[in-house]
Design a protein that fits this description.
Layout: H1 2-21, H2 24-63
Helix pairs in contact: 1-2
């Protein structure tokens, strides 16, 4: 997934440079492609974050012990 995101990011940057020099219908086509790539990048970035959160939640659930927490003595 990271390779795909890196490739899309490079294409997105190249299209940004090309957009500066483009005019008319060429600029419109480049802008459209750039929007499509941006949407795809957003999907990839979100999909990478969600599994990480899910993995952390599983680790937390697995680390809980079956015994109750120890009581602490109150200082007087």
């Amino acid at each position: 997934m990271l390779d795909r995101a890196a490739e899309l990011r490079a294409d997105y940057d190249l299209l940004g440079k090309a957009l500066r020099a483009a005019e008319g219908s060429a600029a419109a086509a480049i802008a459209r492609e750039r929007r499509l790539i941006g949407a795809e990048l957003e999907k990839l970035e979100v999909s990478e974050e969600v599994p990480l959160v899910q993995k952390l939640a599983v680790k937390r659930a697995a680390s809980k012990s079956s015994r109750p927490p120890a009581r602490r003595r109150k200082s007087r």
